[in-house]
Amino acid sequence: MNFSQKMLRDDALQGKVIVVTGGGSGLGRAMTQYFLELGAQVAITSRDLSKLTHTASELESLTGGTCLPLQCDVRHNEEVENMLQQVLKAFGKVDVLLNNAAGNFISPTERLSANAFDTIIDIVLKGTKNCTLAFGKHWIDSKQSSATVLNIVTTYAWTGSAYVVPSATAKAGVLAMTRSLAVEWAKYGIRTNAIAPGPFPTKGAWDRLLPGDLAQKFNLAKKVPLKRVGDHQELANLAAYLVSDFSAYINGEVIVIDGGEWLKGAGQFNMLEAIPEELWDQLESMIKAKKNK
Ligand code: HXC
Ligand code: NAP
């Protein structure tokens, strides 16, 4: 067995209706494919309907499942409300909201216009808020017995990160929303969790965060203690578990899936990994010699 194999049993999501924002590409697409394989019906949403339609038809042929493409810019609340109504019309209910849509680019912060900063906050933080509020109100008003919100954040939601400040600011807000609602809405049977992925190569992220030859210059795998980037199926396995009933007691959690990347940057002496074995012998004798004086 290896890490790119499928984890859950075939009927793990049978009967569930799942909405994946930003489901037409990248990680959203990978998670959608696995949800379909596990028996869920999935609506994928984003700004680009032709891309969504193409993805939905490819995934239906690959999995034999039902995938509904719906245009919805998460920045606009009326589009979100309309998307929810279309999902309910098509499937009669919705069980899971996966807030995956995001926008990002690298830039020194002082080069950003107010509108550039707003664009990222509007997609990531306000878009997640628009979807969560619309779906949450629906679940509460209709007295649905259980539902799940899963948010995709990043590890810099708590560390912060230079050069992606709007994204870090917005993802930190999504993390706070995750933990707050996990407590407030648990009484309605709504679980709220998050996943914080490390580097998982996708065209959307790599074109904007590592353009040109930056991907070669800053090989992200080298920053990861496990010395590799993530495999899309590994993330899909975790997401499927968190939206399934197997995780019914997990609420308010943010699960990091990054091969140890963020902790490597955090530990004060982690740079000592560069020291070769022979040098450790010398260092040990030097330290012991000091103690014996
Ligand atoms: C400075 C920039 C810029 C750049 C855009 N702007 N790109 N400023 N540097 N590189 C400015 C524009 O000049 C404009 O401001 C404002 O931002 C809005 O730009 P638009 O192009 O009009 O916006 P829009 O068409 O809505 O596009 C949104 C976008 C785009 C976020 C800018 O990149 C996009 O559509 N992204 C969606 C997918 C995505 O980003 N995926 C990656 C997620 S990765 P002015 O003032 O001129 O009007 C991720 C991973 C994290 O989150 C961790 C990875 C390890
Ligand atoms: P991606 O393929 O670019 O995914 C982003 C998706 O969001 C796209 O499908 C895009 O579709 C959609 N989107 C953007 N703006 C939107 C809007 N206003 N309304 C609705 N949908 C919108 O990149 P990805 O790497 O798969 O990222 C997926 C998620 O993982 C994001 O939350 C990202 O922050 C997170 N993440 C990724 C990594 C990584 O290494 N890849 C690491 C940490 C976190 P349209 O353009 O069609 O609208």
UniProtKB/TrEMBL annotation:
Pfam families: adh_short_C2. The keyword Oxidoreductase applies. CDD domains: TER_DECR_SDR_a (cd05369). Keywords: NADP, Oxidoreductase. PANTHER family: PEROXISOMAL 2,4-DIENOYL-COA REDUCTASE, PEROXISOMAL 2,4-DIENOYL-COA REDUCTASE [(3E)-ENOYL-COA-PRODUCING]. This is Short-chain dehydrogenase. It comes from Flavobacterium pokkalii. The lineage of its organism: Bacteria, Pseudomonadati, Bacteroidota, Flavobacteriia, Flavobacteriales.
